[in-house]
């Protein structure tokens, strides 16, 4: 299968074919996402929450992101487009070379094809922040690294926006999102993630933009869809405990239940002596040799 590129993603939008993106954080998740033929693998900073157990995406560092990117690259080295999230604190500085240098690390050390930047509209209202962020993105694209933009709910800005909640729900805020999407396109982003915004707002942005939109909690009229691996597969589903699943996420499997059942079965069989038994005790001594025990 041919390598997915920023160009092939763009041509999917033009031909009306939906783009698929799923997160991966390590070798096995990357292998599975690749085997399923998903177009884009995102090493998301959601890693901080679903893999590392933090409450937000803020704590994960660039070095930690690169460590996860390297494992994903080994799991899906050839076909899908690999995008790595620039973590909180790695690209916001006035000095745009910091962002460019860190983007180069994601490519050279992490093996990523592209990086993703969040851009928060509510911050831009305070001090023209989204224009400055767009300039950073332009600087990174000029430097030769493809950029995926991310607007709407931008979890890294949790301390500014106050909580994980839908964005763009008034006409003024919807308009600000559209302006930011256009800014991202003008800055050279190859696509834009739209997270947790009304479906009609996402549809309007998708229609205005030339570059593809990839939605999560943004309705069906985007150029593609992205979900978090653990959410869509039910990695923490459990027979007796409630699992948190975002409202917009369909669960396509209950992998957590399988894991819990497998582990419980192992424990039971070890304790009652059923495992390993003869079937899983394959090694016998070479009978030609002299006895070592009398
Ligand atoms: O980190 C992440 O998983 C993301 C996606 C939800 C787009 O940014
Ligand atoms: Na993210």
UniProtKB/TrEMBL annotation:
Pathway: Cofactor biosynthesis; (R)-pantothenate biosynthesis; (R)-pantoate from 3-methyl-2-oxobutanoate: step 1/2. The keyword Heme does not apply. Its EC number is 2.1.2.11. GO terms for molecular function: 3-methyl-2-oxobutanoate hydroxymethyltransferase activity. Coiled coil: none annotated. It is an enzyme of class 2 (transferase). Signal peptide: none annotated. Keywords: Transferase. It catalyses: (6R)-5,10-methylene-5,6,7,8-tetrahydrofolate + 3-methyl-2-oxobutanoate + H2O = 2-dehydropantoate + (6S)-5,6,7,8-tetrahydrofolate. Belongs to the PanB family. This is 3-methyl-2-oxobutanoate hydroxymethyltransferase. It comes from Cyclotella atomus. The chain holds residues 78 to 371 of 409 of the full protein.
């Amino acid at each position: 299968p041919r390598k997915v590129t920023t160009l092939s993603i763009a041509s999917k939008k033009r031909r009306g074919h939906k783009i698929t993106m799923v997160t991966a954080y390590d070798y096995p998740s990357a292998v599975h996402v690749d085997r399923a033929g998903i177009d884009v693998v995102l090493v998301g900073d959601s890693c901080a929450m679903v893999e590392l157990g933090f409450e937000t995406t803020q704590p994960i560092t660039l070095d930690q992101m690169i460590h996860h990117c390297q494992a994903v690259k080994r799991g899906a080295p050839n076909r899908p487009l690999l995008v790595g999230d620039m973590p909180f604190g790695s690209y916001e500085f006035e000095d745009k070379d910091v962002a460019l240098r860190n983007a180069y690390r994601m490519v050279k050390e992490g093996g990523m094809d592209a990086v993703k930047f969040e851009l928060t509209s509510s911050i831009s209202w305070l001090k023209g922040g989204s224009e400055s962020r767009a300039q950073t993105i332009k600087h990174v694209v000029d430097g030769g690294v493809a950029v995926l933009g991310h607007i709407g709910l931008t979890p890294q800005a949790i301390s500014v926006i106050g909580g994980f909640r839908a964005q763009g729900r008034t006409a003024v805020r919807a308009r600000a999102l559209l302006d930011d999407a256009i800014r991202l396109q003008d800055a050279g982003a190859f696509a834009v993630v739209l997270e947790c915004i009304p479906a009609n707002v996402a549809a309007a942005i998708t229609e205005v933009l030339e570059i593809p939109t990839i939605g999560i909690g943004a309705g069906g009229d985007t150029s593609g869809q992205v979900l978090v691996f653990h959410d869509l597969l039910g990695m923490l589903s459990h027979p007796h405990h409630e699992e948190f699943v975002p409202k917009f996420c369909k669960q396509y499997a209950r992998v957590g239940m399988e894991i819990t059942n497998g582990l419980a079965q192992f424990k039971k069989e070890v304790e009652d002596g059923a495992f390993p038994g003869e079937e899983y005790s394959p090694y016998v001594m070479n009978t030609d040799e002299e006895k070592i025990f009398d």
